[in-house]
Specification:
Blueprint (H helix, E strand, L loop, with lengths): L1 H19 L1 E5 L3 E2 L7 H18 L6 E3 L2 H10 L9 H11 L4 E10 L2 E10 L4 E14 L6 H14 L4
Parallel strand pairs: 1-3, 1-4, 2-4
Antiparallel strand pairs: 4-5, 5-6
Helix pairs in contact: 2-5, 3-4
Length: about 160
């Protein structure tokens, strides 16, 4: 009987720890350039950043990354279009539907041969970027833009480890 009670207590603790884990979403980057041919970069940057973050904590012990299919489904159910001006405000409804705590979101702007990139970690409750851990003003070329992902990961990862307010 004591063994059964002990097992139930352990299971309750493990379940509580899993539920208390911070849920994180990586959204596709915003194409601020407006050139449709660069829209693939939005997903390439997001997928690369997601993989890089996941590589830092493959067991997802400190936070849990929501799978990209769930993110895409939530966005499409609400018929959200990243090129629409209202996307910035409407995307929060999808994030609340996914029950996430933090959102990693970024943007890029190509000007000539240079690409300017920014990435932020947002707190869903307050809809504000973490003021301390931001990856801003990262410049690369059109052929090396994915090299910025390692810099973004270094700068953003500590924000994902912060406890919830």
């Amino acid at each position: 009987m004591k063994v059964l009670v002990s097992i139930m207590i352990v299971l309750a603790c493990v379940t509580t720890a899993a539920l208390a884990q911070i849920r994180v979403v990586v959204l596709p980057f915003r194409n601020m350039d407006g050139e449709i041919s660069l829209n693939t970069w939005s997903y390439e940057l997001a997928d690369s950043l997601r993989s890089s973050i996941l590589a830092k904590d493959p067991a997802q012990t400190t936070f849990m990354l929501v799978d990209q299919d769930s993110v895409e489904m939530a966005i499409s159910e609400l018929n959200l279009d990243p090129s629409n001006v209202q996307y910035e405000s409407d995307v929060w409804r999808a994030m609340e539907k996914l029950n996430v705590d933090r959102v990693v979101q970024g943007n890029f702007f190509r000007r000539g041969e240079r690409v300017l990139m920014n990435a932020y970690v947002y707190d869903v409750e307050f809809k504000m970027a973490d003021p301390e851990f931001q990856a801003k003003d990262i410049y690369k070329t059109a052929t090396t833009y994915l090299d910025a992902v390692s810099t973004m990961t270094k700068k953003l990862y500590p924000a994902l480890l912060k406890p919830l307010p």
